[in-house]
From TrEMBL:
Domain called Small ribosomal subunit protein uS10: residue spans: 10-49
Protein name: Small ribosomal subunit protein uS10 domain-containing protein
Superkingdom of the source species: Eukaryota
Taxonomic path: Eukaryota, Viridiplantae, Streptophyta, Embryophyta, Tracheophyta
GO terms of biological process kind: translation
A Pfam family hit: Ribosomal_S10
Keywords, ordered alphabetically: Ribonucleoprotein, Ribosomal protein
Keyword match Ribonucleoprotein: yes
GO-annotated molecular function: structural constituent of ribosome
Protein family: Belongs to the universal ribosomal protein uS10 family.
InterPro entries the UniProt entry points to: Ribosomal_uS10 (IPR001848), Ribosomal_uS10_dom (IPR027486), Ribosomal_uS10_dom_sf (IPR036838)
Assigned GO CC terms: ribonucleoprotein complex; ribosome
Length: 80
């Protein structure tokens, strides 16, 4: 976490720890987010046999946490 003032950062940390304890979660290393890849295939030009493929990652929301403006957070919570 990164923020100039310490008080909002401590509030976010306390909220994260409280939420993890309420849900009885155990934290471990890195965990991949559940994602799906959306691929859209379109024709490049009319009359040609060339195609363009656009892809976008759709990420599933697994949690909702209130964070103070300006606080940068990177958290991984694993359910065992």
């Amino acid at each position: 976490m990164a923020y100039a003032a310490m008080k909002p950062t401590k509030a976010v940390c306390a909220d994260l720890v409280r939420g993890a304890k309420d849900k009885r979660l155990i934290t471990k290393g890195l965990v991949r987010m559940p994602t799906k890849v959306l691929k859209i295939t379109t024709r490049k030009a009319q009359g040609t046999n060339e195609w363009l493929i656009f892809s976008a990652d759709v990420v599933k929301q697994i949690s909702s946490i209130t964070i103070e403006p300006g606080v940068e957070v990177e958290v991984t919570i694993a359910d065992s």
